[in-house]
Amino acid sequence: MRFVIASLMFAAAATAFAQGYPSKPVRIVIPYAAGGGPDVQARQFGVKLSELLGQTVVLENKVGAAGVLAAQYVAQSAADGYTVLLGSNTHLIQKHLKPDLSFDPIADFVPVSNMASSPTVMVVRADHPAKSVQDVVSSARRNPGKMNYGSGGIGTSAHLAGATLAALGGFKAVHIPLKGSVEITLSLLRGDTDFAFPISSTGVPQVKSGKLRALAVTSAKRMSELPDVPTLTEVMKSDLAVQESWFGFWAPAKSPAEAVNVLHAATVKALADPQLRQQLESTGGIPAPSESPAAFAAFVKSENVKWAEIVKLSAAKAD
Length: 319
What we know:
12 helices; 20% strand; seven-stranded mixed beta sheet; three-stranded parallel beta sheet
């Protein structure tokens, strides 16, 4: 699916980014289905980015294999700065689950800047009998293997969060990989799944609408959007319960430094805009631009180590 954001030409933007790049439209490949939290946030961001770059920004959804298809596509694209990936911790997780994947999230990309972070939210259907995390854990222990949890696919943040809860809570639950994160709410409402951990940009709006009940968040501290909902760390007493997803821009390896630097500067400036920040925060996102491309690269490497530990703890499997 393609959605073209009409470019807005402003003299201020032309002055700020007078370099030769960009001289044509920039494409952002989104590994998530249209309408999901990351997709909505990327589109909100894309409007401002188009304005600042003085070029059309094309957002393309390339969904499949929990983000792998999009990553492989961008990794093989021309290293000219005109095709970038909305990369995330999910891509790191996928490589740990399936080392033989034909892309390397560290070697095949140049990190540009982080955009936003988003913890996951443990949710159940609004009329579900479980009122707390402990209710879910107790029920799962009494009925081993009978409770299940949904995610947007194998290796997604929702998958790892559910598997981590099961490991920390000492119970067995069945993982149900769905076609994408937008399917999580529908699965819960139908009763196909018992609980789930959608990222907050997907889960918070459903909680506010009254469709779902939030039992915990995986951020390090309570979310301002859900101040009465405890962190999973408060309940499970483990630092590995802190699992925040993040979404940023990766260009193919060997992309020109000029393009990387211009995209980074535009990202930082866009995320300083109060209106855009409010839009992101209203859907559970936390604007988190990187200080520099090098700083984002260091962050990605540190996250790679952290998620390797979480994959090991959760005993999550690729299939």
